[in-house]
Design brief:
Blueprint lengths: L15 H9 L13 H16 L6 H8 L3 H19 L20 H14 L15 E3 L6 E3 L14
Length: 164
């Protein structure tokens, strides 16, 4: 058995609210104010629309808890919530679509496309006919990953990365 020790620096530690959100789906909020103002309700609506853009819906109880916050606390909590979700969703990374003309060029049968890719990566051998179409001499390695790809089955003009 091998044990690896890791050191966590202060900059890489996640806050309690980030850990609760990631592991439990719970949102930690500070103590609430006593009254709800129209500005706070407008802020909650804007936060809710930002969350919907990211694919999240808030529950009625979370909406009530957010509406009970003071305006500065709502702004701080909302910004932190969005930042944590963006970090979990990978918003800080560049996302390059596999298909150059995305979404128009996405295959209609994505399951069959995925199955072909898995078969090609698992079964294709160099200098052998294509495992999908049987064409001789059409299988070549892709640069820089060296996956073996049939030029007949996978049109390189449509892919912005390795088709496998």
């Amino acid at each position: 058995m091998t044990t690896t020790a890791t050191t966590i620096t202060a900059s890489s530690q996640r806050s309690l609210d980030a850990v609760l959100l990631q592991r439990r789906g719970s949102v930690y909020l500070p103590d609430s104010a006593s009254s709800t103002t129209p500005d706070v309700l407008a802020g909650v609506t804007l936060l809710e629309s930002d969350l919907i853009d990211r694919g999240y819906l808030i529950s009625a109880s979370l909406r009530e808890a957010l509406a009970a916050l003071a305006s500065p606390a709502l702004a701080t909590s909302g910004a932190a919530l969005l930042a944590h979700l963006d970090a979990d969703l990978g918003a800080d990374r560049d996302h390059t679509p596999l298909f150059r003309r995305f979404p128009q060029s996405v295959p209609a049968d994505t399951l069959a496309f995925w199955t072909d890719r898995v078969l090609a990566v698992l079964l294709q051998a160099p200098e052998q006919p294509c495992v999908l179409c049987g064409t001789h001499g059409s299988v070549h390695p892709v640069s820089p990953c060296a996956h073996l790809v049939c030029r007949t089955c996978f049109d390189g003009a449509d892919f912005s990365a390795c088709p496998i």
